[in-house]
Amino acid sequence: MGRPSVQKQRKAEVLDAFLTCASKYGIEGATLERIASEAGLKRPLIRHHLGNRDDMVKALSEYVITGINSSVEDMRAALEGYPSAKDFIDALYAPESETDPRLNIVFQSLTHSADNYPGLRQELIAAMQSLFDLASEVMQRNHPNATKAECDIVAQGVIGLYLTMDSLSPLSPPSDWAHSSYFASLRLANSLLETS
């Protein structure tokens, strides 16, 4: 009986190394040498597991987008019984809901490289749109007298505050920054009460 294939495991390790390198050096700075060093593999094995540069970026973007979509769906499921705007904001800032900070950093890096990879821009926008849509749906449910445009504006602000804090997490910023961002999000959501 032959040894079980480690191809799937190695591909995941290489993808994780690419994610780490892209979070440190950007998409273009994540060279084969850096990825190979991070993965503890020889350079030719990186291409063996992920393919050419376009294939590598596609695999990385799929991984990041899947992570974002998974987070959005988890949040949607968690809010099913607790649909208030405060519950939504609590879910964003809850310690147990923290996402891998590399995802947001690499998402930003992918946005800067989107012009170099056909179709990537649309995929990134679709992933972020799902998060904005969820936030807007929550605002609309809680403030039925507010217009959709008003709910969209608040949703953009709430998500923008959250993404800013998430992108700063590798710096281990002072805890009062997250605290202030959380309360700014609540205040923004409560501004819809004035329109109701």
Percent in strands: under 5%
Give the distance, in angstroms, between the N- and C-terminal Cα atoms.
69 Å
Arithmetic mean of pLDDT: 89
State the low-pLDDT regions, or none.
none
Rg (C-alpha, Å)? 19 Å
Largest sheet: none
Q: Given this structure, which CATH class of the largest domain is correct? A: Mainly Alpha
Number of DSSP E strands: 0
Q: How many structural domains does the protein architecture include?
A: 2
How many separate helices? 9
- Structural class designation: mainly alpha
CATH architecture of the largest domain: Orthogonal Bundle
For this structure, the CATH topology of the largest domain is: Tetracycline Repressor, domain 2
Helix content: over 70%
In quaternary terms, these chains amount to: single chain
Give the helices and strands as they follow along the chain.
Answer: HHHHHHHHH
Pfam family, one: TetR_N
Domain HTH tetR-type: 8-68
GO molecular function: DNA binding
DNA-binding region: 31-50
Report on the architecture of this protein.
By secondary structure, the chain is mostly helical. It is 75% helix and 0% strand. The protein starts with 6 loop residues before the first helix and ends in a 6-residue tail after the last helix. Residues 31-50 bind DNA.
Q: Could you list some keywords that capture this structure?
A:
Tetracycline Repressor, domain 2; 75% helix
